[in-house]
Each structure stands twice: as structure tokens, then as C-alpha cells.
Amino acid sequence: MREYSGKRLLLCIAMIVGVAGTLQVIVFNKRQKLHFQHHPDQRFETPRNNQDSFVAAGPPVEGNVAAVGMDRIHLSVAGKLSPYRCDNPGQYKIGEKLRVTYAQGSPPTAVRIERL
């Protein structure tokens, strides 16, 4: 069996840690830039009150919750998924029937969510 010197071993460990740290920084910076690219309004967002500047985008929509994300819910309306941004999506369960009144945007922002 071959013996390795302590200096060589420490150098290899330092190189592995350095490369892993660099890759992590590159990946997380890219992921953060992609997030801000898709959601530019959340970069320096302050808590907002949607009811002060409410502009209805249409009549309320009724549907079942198909998925719950970090900042939005996805409703299944007539077989089509529609995302709606809301403040606390974790309180809704998948399969629950909701009526959503929303404001314009991409994705639309839910102003009022009622359970049916």
C-alpha cells in the first residue's frame, strides 16, 4: 500500500473544498438571478395592501386547488390550471374548492379568496 504525505493530503482536501465552494456559489447565484428574472417585483418588496389599489381582472373564478407553491396557488378551472399569487398559500389544501377574486398581473394576484 502506498503512503501519502500529510502535506499532499491537506492540499487535496483544500482543493476539493475550494472547488465545491466555488461551484456552490456559482449555482446559487444563477438560481437567484433566475428567480429575480421571473419575479422582478419581489426583489425589494415591502408588504403590500392589495385592497388599496384593486383593479379587478374579471369575475371571480371558482375552482379546486391543484397545487400549492411558496407564493401562489394553482386552481383547476374546467380542466385548466391557473396560478394565483397570494400571501399565505399554505393554509389551503389540495382538492379544496375556492372562489378567487384577483387583480391583473402575471401571474394574477389574489385579492380575496373564499372557501366554498
Layout of helices and strands:
Layout: H1 6-38, E1 61-68, E2 72-77, E3 80-85, E4 97-103, E5 109-115
Antiparallel strand pairs: 1-2, 1-4, 2-3, 4-5
Written account of the structure:
It is a single chain. This protein is an alpha+beta fold. The protein contains 1 helix and 5 strands; from the N terminus they run αβββββ. The protein has one helix at residues 6-38; strands spanning 61-68, 72-77, 80-85, 97-103, 109-115. Strands 3-2-1-4-5 form a 5-stranded antiparallel β-sheet, with no helix packed on it. A hairpin with a 3-residue loop joins β1 and β2 (72-77). The longest helix is centred in the N-terminal third of the chain and has 33 residues, at 6-38. The model is unreliable at 36-40 and 42-47 (pLDDT under 50).
Nutshell version of this structure?
This protein is of the alpha+beta class and 116 residues long. The chain contains 1 helix and 5 strands, in the order H-E-E-E-E-E. Mean pLDDT is 77; it is low at 36-40 and 42-47.
Annotation keywords:
alpha+beta; 1 helix; 29% strand; single chain; 116 residues
**Strand fraction band?**
25-35%
Kindly report how far apart the N and C termini lie.
Answer: 72 Å
The level of helicity is 25-40%
Total number of strands: 5
Q: Overall mean pLDDT score? A: 77
Radius of gyration: 23 Å
Structural class: alpha+beta
Counting copies of identical and different chains, the oligomeric state is single chain
Question: How do the strands of the widest beta sheet line up side by side?
Answer: 3-2-1-4-5
* Principal-axis shape: rod-shaped
Question: How is the main sheet built?
Answer: 5 strands, antiparallel
Per DSSP, the total helix count is 1
Spell the H/E element sequence: HEEEEE
List segments where confidence is low: pLDDT < 50 over at least 5 consecutive residues.
36-40, 42-47
